[in-house]
């Protein structure tokens, strides 16, 4: 069987002309690929980060697109952070390593719950029922024409660069869900289209956190909070600065205005049974044994020349497939396609497009192979593709990635604090240790 020629060197604007026609922003804030990732990693300043990360001008790393697409692993970013501080004082990089742990945590939760990340884990804790939230995403937010200088600036930055500082994401998400009463899934889809780091784990679970569908109370902010971390840059040019600013109020007044109480409306339903997150094995399956005839399948969660299966099979053919269905479903923006293309074009892969399972199977058959080697992904789509390949008689080998945080016990993922107590020793490069006691328990026993 003959394979179609590789699309690796075809510019993405030719591959996806409709996307590039629709989205005028073809290049995001970061260039794709390992060389660009290592340059960004070399600029990391984890110590100053610990002091000023909440400020819009703080020393945030902007590494998220590389982490999201596996150009860098969390473990190597952590190692780079620890290399900045004396071995005797790893806690000077504490805040940065702790932030990385959120990525690991959300990814692990996603691996457990799959598509449920699109459903409210619990009802909104705002007193409003689900039916009070609009399913239509407001055009003025999407286009940046709300008339609020801060909201419009973040909307523009998101669409033009594919990046927002964490604080801007929280502020914008809170505005969408709580001020405009739009369901969080609408905002999450908008972010997923534009963010270079967008993924259903970290995106949706942060939206659920802001919305209060996975947290005891909704996230709110006010003008004082904005000015503390952003200065005057927005208010100085906002027509509503001297009257009519919806954020110019105390938290108590905002809460009174926006919510109907501080708990769920009667009859509200949640979709997550927390028991699913209670005792989750942390360790990856062992590395498989290399076989002579394998082909390698590289997917979008690990776009690096350090890819474990590429490394195990340096001389075997490898394939990457543009997942047309997923790109359409997420309405992935041009700048994000460019980023992915830049990552892929550094790799020794044959590039195809279409139905992923079908294309990978055709590639393996064309090379006379029954074994497909790849790396893990928390995505339910990955699980479905692996199942489809296995049902066609292929053996799929999953080569594990370095672990960010090992534990002595199965992980309790119900809340981040408990997960962190279990993995933090290992996340700082030490052998895994018994979970530190919770603060309250430590007090009681002391
Ligand atoms: C509504 C909303 C949506 C978000 N969507 C995404 C998303 O789709 N993808 C994504 O990677 N992050 C998402 N985040 C988390 C966070 O905002 C970004 O990871 C961070 O802003 C990326 O910038 P940075 O690399 O400069 O981060 P830094 O502050 O330098 O942090 C270093 C790394 O730690 C991890 N990290 C930091 N904060 C968080 C966090 N709150 N949750 C999870 N990981 C974190 C990221 O991998 C990040 O690259 C979202 C946050 C919110 C509030």
UniProtKB/TrEMBL annotation:
Cofactor(s) needed: FAD
Database matches in Gene3D superfamilies: 1.25.40.80, DNA Cyclobutane Dipyrimidine Photolyase, subunit A, domain 3, HUPs
Biased composition (Basic residues): 436-446
Segments crossing the lipid bilayer: none
Range of residues in the leader sequence: none
Keywords, in A-Z order: FAD, Flavoprotein
Sequence ranges assigned to domain Cryptochrome/DNA photolyase FAD-binding in this UniProt record: 96-213
InterPro entries linked to this entry: Crypto/Photolyase_FAD-like_sf (IPR036134), Crypto/Photolyase_N_sf (IPR036155), Cryptochr/Photolyase_FAD-bd (IPR005101), Cryptochrome/DNA_photolyase_1 (IPR002081), Rossmann-like_a/b/a_fold (IPR014729)
Location of region: Disordered: 426-446
The protein, known as: Cryptochrome/DNA photolyase FAD-binding domain-containing protein
